[in-house]
Amino acid sequence: MDIAALIDPARFRAPVAPGNRPGDRLIDWLRRMLLIRAAEEAIGDLVLSGEARCPCHLAIGQEAAAVGVACHLDARDRAFGAHRSHAQYLAMGGDLVALMAEVLGKATGCSRGMGGSMHLYAGEVGFHGSVPIVAGTVPVAVGAALAAKKDGRGAVAVAFFGDGAAEEGGVQESLNLARVMKLPVLFVCENNLYASHMDIRLRQPSERVSRYAEAHDIPARLVDGNDVLAVADAAEELIAVARRGDGPGFLEAITYRWRGHVGPDENVDVGLRRSVTDLKSWKERDPIRRLADALLARGDLDQPGLSALRADAAGLVEAAVAEARRAPYPHASSLLGLVYAEAR
Ligand SMILES: Cc1ncc(C[n+]2csc(CCOP(=O)(O)OP(=O)(O)O)c2C)c(N)n1
Ligand SMILES: [Mg+2]
User: Fold this and answer.
1) Protein residue with least CA distance to atom 4, ligand 1
2) Mean pLDDT for all residues in the chain
3) Ligand 1 atom, smallest distance to 261 CA
4) Domain that holds residue 182
């Protein structure tokens, strides 16, 4: 794929090409993307109303990257994220109520209300944590891949990170070690072209992050990150290589966040090149609409069916927020309870 075409928001707006993939599988992916979108819109509202007090980084517009990778992972795998990880957590099957409770700081949250939006955990489905230290979990994923290799049960580790994280030295060291030790890890760079408010074109000589993988002799795929099928095909191939013991892979998904760096507003007034026109244009590459249109065109779904999927997602999110609201806050006495591991 040509990076110049991929970063041009006037391109790739057509429905995705479902090929001969079964309709029910694709409907499941659509359902997951709709749930992520609805959940993040609700989180945005909770921030606006002041109920959510932690910083919340929304991935609205980026849903296909998380779902296209997560659909090939299972509970034995070890995925890690960063500050913008609601989508990855939900795509892996993390509990929706526990997410909302965590965002509201409640004791029933997935990190017992101690972490907030940027510290998500759902080990039971293979999501082993998100940490807002940019690039912090990339070497951790490499360690998890080493453990997986020693276990010999075919598990893979996945590091989700951004284009900004790729500029941290630890990512280079991680790529090097993973390749030299032939570890089963997939590096997934969700390249949304921004690190906080700075455009990648002001930071780098090339917009293409996967060139780092080539420098480390790691097979890389560059895809339209708003095409869940393109992401899923590339992820499937690279994950299969890792699972059979043939070493790491690197997947770069070009995408764009519709909201600001942090919080629900659009941040069009802070970046140098994030213009209203660009944002409007990127919304035309909506990963959800492109999949839904493909399913409608192929007859896997009709309009009432699509409306029902949307209503289901909205209903689940509304119920989850209500349940999270009812949950208690953690007691102050539990504050130190999670600081040290218990002696075995
Ligand atoms: C080590 C470190 N440096 C700086 C920050 C502040 N910070 C938070 S997010 C971010 C940008 C990350 O950009 P990217 O990796 O592209 O992720 P995106 O926000 O685009 O999803 C920065 C600089 C941080 N959290 N950690
Ligand atoms: Mg980024």
Assistant:
1) 134
2) 96
3) 19
4) 20-325
Q: What is the pLDDT of residues 314-336, one digit of tens each?
A: 999 999 999 999 999 999 988 88
Question: In this structure, is residue 330 part of a structural domain?
Answer: no
Q: To the nearest 5 percent, what fractions of the chain are helix, strand and coil?
A: 45, 10, 45
What type of residue sits at position 238? Answer: L
The answer to whether residue 279 is domain-embedded is yes
**251: in domain:** yes
The pLDDT tens digits for 154-213 are 999 999 999 999 999 999 999 999 999 999 999 999 999 999 989 999 999 999 999 999
**Amino acid at residue number 55:** P
Give the domain CATH number at 136: 3.40.50.970
CB-count burial class (<10 Å; 0-12, 13-18, 19+) for 50: exposed
Domain for residue 5, yes or no?
A: no
pLDDT for the residue numbered 344: 67
The residues lining ligand 1, judged by C-beta closer than 6 Å to any ligand atom, are: 83-84, 132-134, 161-165, 192, 194-196, 261
Max Cα-Cα span within the chain: 58
Domain count, the chain: 1
Rounded to two decimals, the pTM is 0.97
